[in-house]
Amino acid sequence: VQLQASGGGLVQPGGSLRLSCVASGRAFDWSSMSWFRQAPGKEREFVASISYSGRGTRYADSVKDRFTISRDNAKNTAYLQMGSLSPDDAAVYYCAASSIWTADRTSENDYDYWGQGTLVTVSS
User: Fold this and answer.
1) What sign does the CA torsion over 11, 46, 50, 84 have?
2) Which of 27, 43, 112, 120 suits 78 as a labelling partner, its CA being 20 to 30 A distant?
3) Mind listing the pLDDT tens digit for each residue in 24-71?
């Protein structure tokens, strides 16, 4: 499985941005897709995850009600719509995939495949 993340860039505080993650390989291997982020000097942290059907989602408390994860299986793509961005959201965002989705899989160790990361900068 290969994951290709894109969509990062510079956005002003309060702005929005949509990240995309295109997956290739066996669909079973990316049944669960998620986003993590890592800010400079900080550990990588879970942001959101989504099941293959899209009916299951999980968000970190810090992004709940501001970010929305979705997927289009016909396009092999997962999305992270980010809104009301603040400088605290600035980080390299990584997409990750696993063959299993449960709501409590929020650790890096729960995911087998990783994209290369896309940088989100929030600044005026």
Assistant:
1) negative
2) 43
3) 887 766 789 999 999 999 999 999 999 999 999 999 999 999 999 999
